């Protein structure tokens, strides 16, 4: 697994990429379904909070949507995470080896 796939789910309900300092958190870009990286804050803002549900989906309360892996345009083997309506799709299932 590449380093770009090393994320942690925290007790503050953040998805944190912490292999560098300062740490970055997955953030929903305002007015879109796009996920971007922003510096983590001491108290996680609502656009950086996700609930890891029992079925493995990551639910974003502010948008009422789930993170889904979608194929990039013009690529058969690359995916991009986007917010989509929650379904039972395997493309919305995520797991973390450890929780912080």
Question: What does the secondary structure layout of this molecule look like, with pairings?
Answer:
Blueprint: E1 8-9, E2 15-17, E3 24-28, E4 35-39, E5 51-52, E6 58-60, E7 65-71, E8 79-84
Antiparallel strand pairs: 1-2, 2-3, 3-4, 5-6, 6-7, 7-8
InterPro entries: Ricin_B-like_lectins, Ricin_B_lectin
Domain Ricin B lectin: 3-94
Protein name: Polypeptide N-acetylgalactosaminyltransferase 12-like isoform X2
Main attributes?
4-stranded antiparallel sheet, mainly beta, 0% helix, single chain, Trefoil (Acidic Fibroblast Growth Factor, subunit A), 100 residues
Write up this protein.
The chain is 0% helix and 33% strand. With 100 residues, the protein is mainly β. It has one domain: Trefoil (Acidic Fibroblast Growth Factor, subunit A). The radius of gyration is 13 Å and the shape is globular. It holds the Pfam family Ricin_B_lectin. InterPro entries: Ricin_B-like_lectins, Ricin_B_lectin.
């Amino acid at each position: 697994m590449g380093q770009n796939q090393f994320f942690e789910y925290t007790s503050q309900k953040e998805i944190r990429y912490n292999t560098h300092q300062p740490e970055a958190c997955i953030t929903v870009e305002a007015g879109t379904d796009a996920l971007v990286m922003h510096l983590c804050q001491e108290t996680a803002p609502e656009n950086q909070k996700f609930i890891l549900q029992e079925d493995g989906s990551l639910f974003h309360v502010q948008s009422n949507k789930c993170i889904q892996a979608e194929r990039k345009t013009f690529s058969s083997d690359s995916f991009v995470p986007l917010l989509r309506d929650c379904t039972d799709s395997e493309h919305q299932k995520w797991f973390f080896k450890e929780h912080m």
